[in-house]
């Protein structure tokens, strides 16, 4: 629960509201990309662009993303690594 609060705080520290919403819907609400696009009124392609920009601005509060590269569940995707770190799984 503590990690969840830290992640929400980190998301809320982003300056761009669209980036905040994309991360919130994806990692907190667990929505699919197309669902986020529908909810926000953007194409799925735009949502992926916003997501990439949000990750560039997002501060991971611990070293989980670095560590995840050595775990069997690392799939080689920064999005998956970030999801794992954010959700702490």
Give a quick precis of the structure.
The chain is mostly helical and 89 residues long. 67% of the residues lie in helices and 0% in strands.
List the defining traits of the structure above:
89 residues, mainly alpha, 0% strand
Number of helices: 6
Structural class: mainly alpha
Unreliable parts: 64-76
- Most strands sheet: none
Kindly state the mean pLDDT as a whole number?
77
Number of strands: 0
Alpha carbon gap, first and last residue: 13 Å
Helix fraction bin: 55-70%
Radius of gyration: 13 Å
Q: Strand portion, in percent?
A: under 5%
Order of helices and strands: HHHHHH
The gross shape turns out to be globular
Can you walk through the features of this model?
By secondary structure, the chain is mainly α. 67% of the residues lie in helices and 0% in strands. The protein contains six helices and no strands. It is globular and about 35 Å long. About 15% of the residues have low confidence.
Topology of helices and strands:
Elements: H1 2-12, H2 17-28, H3 33-40, H4 44-57, H5 64-68, H6 78-87
Helix pairs in contact: 1-2, 2-4, 3-4
């Amino acid at each position: 629960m503590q990690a969840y609060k830290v992640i929400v705080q980190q998301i809320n520290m982003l300056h761009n509201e669209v980036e905040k919403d994309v991360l919130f819907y994806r990692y907190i609400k667990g929505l699919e990309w197309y669902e986020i696009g529908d909810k926000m009124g953007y194409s799925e392609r735009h949502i992926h662009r916003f997501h990439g920009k949000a990750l560039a601005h997002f501060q991971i509060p611990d070293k989980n993303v670095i560590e995840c590269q050595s775990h069997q569940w690392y799939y080689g995707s920064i999005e998956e690594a970030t999801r794992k770190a954010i959700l702490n799984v």
